[in-house]
Structures are given as C-alpha cells and as structure tokens.
Amino acid sequence: MFKRINGVEPEIYTFDGFSESRFLNFVTGRNGGVSPAPYDSLNTDSNGGDNPANVRENLARINRAMGIEKLWTPRQVHQDTIAIVDGGGTPGEVEADAVIVATPGIAVGVRTADCLPIIIVNPSGAAACVIHAGRRSTELGITAKAIALLAARFNCDPSSLAAAIGPGIRRCCYEVDEDTAKRFDSCCGGADGRHLDIVGANMRQLVSAGVKPENVTDCGICASCENRSFFSYRKDGKVTGRFLTGVMIR
Fold first, then answer.
1. Which residues touch 195 (CB under 8 Å, ≥6 apart)?
2. 99-123 tens-digit pLDDT
3. What is the CATH number of domain 2-249?
C-alpha cells in the first residue's frame, strides 16, 4: 500500500510493507519545504531555476525525516545509462537515469515531475535500484536493462525481484503528437491514440525481463491529476520542481 508517512514532516510517502524491512523506500511530495513558487515548496532539484540553497534545505529536511546520512542522485539525461554506486564518485556529476546500490546505508534516488519513478529490490538485500523512466528512457528499454544488470552483476534472480511504481503522468493526461505516439507504440506498445501508457510499457519490460506480475506494486497515482501533492511538468506549465523517489538498503 502506498501511503503518506504519519507524523513525518515534510510530506513523504512510502510503499508500506514493500520487501518487508530490509529496505527503506520513500517518495517525497511537494509540500513542507522552503522553495517559493513556482517550485513550491519541497523541490529537490536546482537545475530548473530554484535557488540551490532552498534545494539543500529541502533535501536536509528529507534526510532528517527519513534518517538518511548519505543520499546519492545522478544527473539525469533521459537516456539508458545505469550507474552503480559503492560510496565513491560525486553525486550530480555522473550522468545516468537509473542507479543500482549494493552498499547498505547509502540512499539512491531520482527526481521526477511526470516521468515514472520505479524502485526494484532484491528481497535478499543484495542490491536495490531506482529508475527514472521517462518516455525516451522507456523507449530505450532502461527498466529491462536495469534488471539484466542486477542479474549479471549481483546474481539477482529476476523472478525474485520486487518492484514498485511511483507517481507519474498516466494515460489519462499524457497526450502527445501523432508521430511521437506511433514511435512509442512501435517500440513499447500501449499507445491509446495520442495518449501514452508509460506505466503499461514499463510493466511489460518488468515482466518480460522475468519479474513476476504479483511482485509489482503500482501506486496508481497520476502526478498531473494529483498535482497538489506531486510536481507535474505539464500541469505546472513546464517550470516547476521535482520530487524525489529513493531506496536504501538498511
């Protein structure tokens, strides 16, 4: 079940019971931070024009609320590059749209505002992954590639993996031009006229890569429809903040 964490400020959600207690998972809302409009208020990304000091304070509030000492996020470029984090490197300088971590105590996250965030964990605790599955990354098969890398590098059996799909723009609100819809449908399937089903496309990648459908939890939230709680690039008029989806091996 996807729910807001009671008694925690700022606004933070979790997939309750997701792979039991071996992993900390979280999705931040848009409320409880210090950023002014149009980034109001719990913006986690300074690349869109917000004051970096505001973003640092927002991230500090999130880290304190969740008990996180180290948070690692990449510079997202809407491609299919997957970074593996072991505690080294400088966050924000590595270009990637998915991050795998096998070291306990390091939280990894991606920032979104319509693109689809996906968490994948190995219940044994060997590794965890968080994915920024935008349209371009989905077309490049980033979710399937992340599962293949988990299997190859960390000996994870895809059939034992658990996945959680966070808030993102859904078919109801994701209308594109005809050429974009045809291209997406030809490689990913799921286009309903000019409306894209990015959730369905990534679900197919999860299942085709070996993840059992019953091991996938979808929060069911459209970021555009639930714009009061989550940033939406389209609904907010393109200038907006980003919320953070993350996971950490305890």
1. 171, 172, 174, 175, 176, 181
2. 999 999 999 999 999 999 999 999 8
3. 3.60.140.10
